[in-house]
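Human: We require from you a standard protein entry with sequence in single-letter code and fold as tokens, and nothing else.

Assistant:
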Amino acid sequence: MHVFYKNLLDNLSGAVLMVDGERCIRYMNPAAEMLFEVSAKRMEGENLVSLIRDHFEFYEVLADACDTGHSFTRREAHLLLHNGKDLAADYSISPLLAERSNGLLIEVQPRERLIRISREEESRSQQETTRELIRGLAHEIKNPLGGIRGAAQLLDRALPNDSLHEYTQVIIGEADRLQNLVDRMLGPRQLPQKKPINIHLILERINSLISAETAGQVEVVRDYDPSIPDIDGDEEQLIQAVLNVVRNGVQALLEAETPSPRITLRTRAIRQFTLGAERHRLVCQLVVQDNGPGVPESLRETLFYPMISGRAAGTGLGLSIAQSIVNQHQGLIECQSEPGCTEFMIYIPLENEYGVK
């Protein structure tokens, strides 16, 4: 293959394979290696069926492309892979007529990426609508709150009887509490002050805080990938975001009286990962996992909305603030939950401002 064309294919985000007339694999780009979880070097010369198991429609389309010399595309197909996984994908098969070797170029685009983009766009749109509503509501609340507090202070000074000061102090205290609540609903006031930081130093700080807060009641397991480079982020804000997620899990464990309660902090470097509509070459994945009762089904769609909580004593602001901070770092938080295993996955891009790491 010409070096120029190989370089082009190597840098595509979609999976591309090239097979010869005997359906033996001659080339796989890095995206295909990631998708099929195999090495191109190991698969070179192997029959395609060792990668994509016998699938009637797929191999029928393959045969049609060979026989007719025309390209074929299938949408929303399912491919059974060599590792037993069922892959929902769109794929195209094109004859390599210029090669005169009955070769075929196969492009595979997993639908998971398209579904993720659609889900994230819908979620971001809903969250932005919610934030705008909260900003408007906060403005309407803060103005009368200021008036109430000011009037209570004037009344406190004018009262002749010291025994009545207790009541004005209650009014002032409650006004301050509501003011603090509104500020927390609005999330961080400052934009992130980014600098290169080690994600594991953040996690070690959180481990120390949680160990002190729980007096060792909850086991913290650390599973770090030491190859992850520094990320560009605001250290204090990221500590707050991850701490909110970890505390959420700890509280669920303790309130449910989970036997052998455990929090796992796991980091991994993920290549070619989509955040929003943008595909990133390298992303830091941070997983906060607990072995608690799981998130109730009724809360999963609104889990990151402010004032939504599954706990009687909860404010429902911790996860909302965490998401706001992660979003300001161009990242994403997702949740997968079932009884005995709840995972919050935080993804933050590792590229710098020029898209290079």
Notes: The chain has a mean pLDDT of 83. The chain is about 40% helix and 25% strand. The longest helix spans residues 111-158.
